[in-house]
Amino acid sequence: MKKKSKKSKIKLKIDFVSSVTLDSKTGKKRINFILNKVKDGSILVVNGVLTPDEEMGLIRETMQRVDDGFPGIEVCSLKKQLKGWGQLSEALSDGRKRFWSGITGNPPNPKLKTGITLIGPAKIIKNIRKNPDSFSVLAEM
Amino acid sequence: MVFGRLVNWIRNFFRLRQDISLGIYGCTNVGKTTLANRICMDWVGEEMGKVSRIPHETRMVQKKEKLLIESNGKKININILDMPGIATKVDYRKFLKYGIKKKAAKARAREATKGVVEAIKWLNNVDTVLAVMDATKDPLTQVNITLLGNLEAKGIPVILVANKIDLKRSKPQNIKEAFPQYPLVEISALKGKSINNLYEAIIEHSRKAQ
């Protein structure tokens, strides 16, 4: 009688998230949404880019959640470079939000910028090689 | 509360403080503390912190106050802030490879994560930043991109420091190509090579030079 051989399957979960999903979440909820998924082992691909403030907030929050089983994250984003009126319009909009945020003390809730972001657990993602217009990811299970 | 924020905002906007707080930022092991030590040795004759090849040696913000820097007849008073390296991951297992015991490695990792959080908080309190990068490595890391984007959004002047140019494999031109919009100084903090160019840049790009 032949023994049935059990092949262990390596599973990798990739969640593609629309920018609309993240735009609907404010401040810390947005960061929590990302980190909860990543801490569960998912690689997140978002069709948008966080603001530099939010990216720094993401790093800060990640550090507060690091433990023996979760060493942190790997993140990489490609932002569409705006030119001319688009760039000016974005700069004015950001400046206005920062000004009111500074006056009122309320954190701004900016929309995601045009681009793509990949965020995943550092335990799985071993290396990200970035070029100005592309990036490649090496994952290891 | 709102009034306090408004006063702080106006004060920061016009840079009314007496001294310049110069933050030394960057990824781990790029030579931030070596640079801080070099600056302190040059101007006050004593070192600032311990340097190590093990990542996250600096896990708390180190300060040295009231350094008078001079270059080309201009002077500036600075407070040096040597920051813990910014990272998106801290794995205690990495420290084991350097011969650190498991318990100590876990403690080091805990301190390192707190250090990163502290360094990020300090971004709101620095006037000028030296963004240090290892010229032997790829500068296009997300930490560098996030850090520079954050400083730009806050309107904080940045000087890129391409460190370790004494090493043969260093390619400071990669940093220049990756971030052409920022002033760049190529140095070796360890050997002191071209360090005067850095002092010149600090005075030129900080707003309180006299």
Please describe what this structure looks like.
The complex is a heterodimer of chains A (about 140) and B (about 210). With about 140 residues, chain A is α+β, with helices and mostly antiparallel strands. Chain A has one domain. Chain A is built from 4 helices and 6 strands. In chain A, helix 2 (about 25-40) packs across helix 3 (about 50-65). The longest helix of chain A is centred in the C-terminal third of the chain and has 20 residues, at about 85-105. The mean pLDDT of chain B is about 90. Chain B has helices at about 1-15, 30-45, 90-95, 100-120, 140-155, 170-180, 195-205; strands spanning about 20-25, 60-70, 75-80, 130-135, 160-165, 185. Chain B has one domain (about 20-205): Rossmann fold (3-Layer(aba) Sandwich), CATH 3.40.50.300. A 6-stranded mixed sheet of chain B has the order 2-3-1-4-5-6, with helices on both faces. Chain B is built from 7 helices and 6 strands. At the A-B interface, helix 3, strand 3, helix 4 and strand 5 of A face helix 1, helix 4 and helix 5 of B.
Look at the structure and give the mean pLDDT of chain B.
Answer: 90
Separation of termini of chain B? 34 Å
CATH architecture assignment name of chain B = 3-Layer(aba) Sandwich
* Number of discrete domains of chain A: 1
Main sheet of chain A?
4 strands, mixed
Helix/strand order of chain B: HEHEEHHEHEHEH
* Straight-line N-to-C gap of chain A: 34 Å
How is the CATH topology of chain B named? Rossmann fold
Helical segment tally of chain B? 7
Can you identify the CATH class of chain B?
Alpha Beta
